[in-house]
Backbone:
């Protein structure tokens, strides 16, 4: 059977517009009750990259998260929000982005990963062990909510790359050092983590995307869509098509094909809602690429930046 990806249009972050778009998106995917049952602990995993002003584009927009919280609570789920930002802690980033106020109003905790769980890899995996935040493992349901952005190291960051944020603390920097030989090697590690996290649902904030030198310093691009599905590979493949990136040039998709994870063949993906011809663009600006690996110097620099952000937040 084909994998399903739903696409709906949403031109702005007006809360009612987002609510309507998410309702439509979830209708195509069978409704929120298909994924969340009464009493379920539901981890909402946004992209909280760094502290920025309310409405800035590096992070998943708070209106999208609010709408998802409403949906989860409407069927008796117990939502929490968690992430591991590149700079600063999750509370600081959430406060600066406007998400903390929303979460407080709705009684939803925002958590920093506290401890990790060591996961035994599958035989074909590239590393001997994997660590994932305990809060991710303990959740009954994981809803992955990435921001659709360009990425200077991997070209795009969508559904798969966002799950790298389930790796606790500064282990992410060490993984850049260990797995950063080339984009394919790093992409395989990202795909393996995505397979281990296995979110039940992914909703991509592409209302205001990022192009150019992403994931933190690019420019806004009014893509005007919300997308969703259960297969993170299929979602990444569809987003390649939307912005005109050949799948064979996207190392994350190629890595997924190599290990046999997800659906990367566009002919095996059923698209509901708006078709690709309705939402595809031809002028999306891809970033100038930089190496994937982090040198020890860059890791130290990142740690110093992290401490500096904590001091000024």
Residues:
């Amino acid at each position: 059977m084909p994998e399903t990806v739903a696409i709906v249009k949403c031109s702005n972050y007006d809360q009612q517009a987002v609510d309507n778009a998410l309702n439509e998106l979830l209708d195509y995917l069978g409704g929120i009750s298909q994924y969340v049952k009464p009493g379920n602990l539901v981890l909402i995993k946004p992209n909280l990259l760094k502290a920025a002003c309310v409405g800035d584009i590096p992070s998943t927009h708070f209106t999208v998260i609010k709408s998802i919280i409403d949906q989860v609570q409407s069927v008796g789920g117990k939502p929490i929000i968690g992430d591991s930002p590149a700079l600063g802690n999750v509370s600081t980033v959430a406060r600066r982005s406007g998400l903390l106020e929303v979460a407080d109003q709705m009684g939803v905790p925002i958590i920093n990963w506290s401890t990790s769980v060591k996961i035994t890899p599958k035989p074909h995996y590239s590393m001997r062990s994997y660590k994932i935040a305990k809060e991710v493992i303990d959740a009954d349901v994981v809803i992955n909510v990435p921001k659709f952005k360009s990425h200077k190291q991997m070209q795009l960051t969508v559904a798969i790359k966002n799950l790298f944020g389930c790796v606790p603390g500064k282990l992410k920097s060490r993984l850049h050092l260990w797995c950063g030989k080339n984009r394919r090697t790093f992409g395989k590690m990202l795909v393996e983590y995505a397979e281990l996290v296995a979110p039940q649902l992914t909703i991509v904030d592409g209302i205001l995307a990022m192009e150019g030198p992403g994931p933190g310093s690019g420019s806004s691009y009014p893509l005007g869509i919300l997308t969703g599905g259960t297969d993170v590979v299929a979602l990444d493949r569809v987003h390649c098509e939307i912005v005109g990136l050949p799948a064979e040039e996207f190392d994350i998709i190629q890595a997924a094909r190599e290990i046999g994870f997800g659906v990367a063949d566009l002919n095996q993906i059923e698209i509901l809602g708006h078709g690709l011809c309705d939402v595809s663009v031809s002028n999306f600006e891809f970033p100038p690429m930089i190496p994937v690996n982090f040198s020890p110097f860059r890791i130290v620099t990142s740690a110093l930046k992290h401490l500096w952000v904590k001091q000024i937040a």
In short: The two ends are 49 Å apart (CA to CA).
